[in-house]
Amino acid sequence: SGTSGRPTTPITKVGSTHLRRALFMPAMTARNNNPLLKTFADRLQENGKKPKQIIIGIMRKLLHQIYGILKSGEPYNP
């Protein structure tokens, strides 16, 4: 497994470019300052993910956190 010889596909550009751009720098900062996301990034790096793939994973996690906060209406509680 993992060596099928298929070429890797690029990350899709479908979706909001504004949202992607808005989440990029917060993801970079969160990687260094949020202990949970730092652990997540370290785990992805150990699994052989490339740096930009790690940032995209952090962006996704941040987006899920933001959505949960907005949906619940509760203040952010780290």
From TrEMBL:
Please give one Gene Ontology molecular function term for this protein: DNA binding
Which residue ranges run through the membrane? Answer: none
Biological process per Gene Ontology, one example term: DNA transposition
Record-annotated Transposase IS116/IS110/IS902 C-terminal domain positions: 1-40
In terms of InterPro entries, this protein maps to: Transpos_IS110, Transposase_20
Concerning Pfam families, the annotation shows: Transposase_20
Q: What is this protein called?
A: Transposase
Species of provenance: Luteolibacter pohnpeiensis
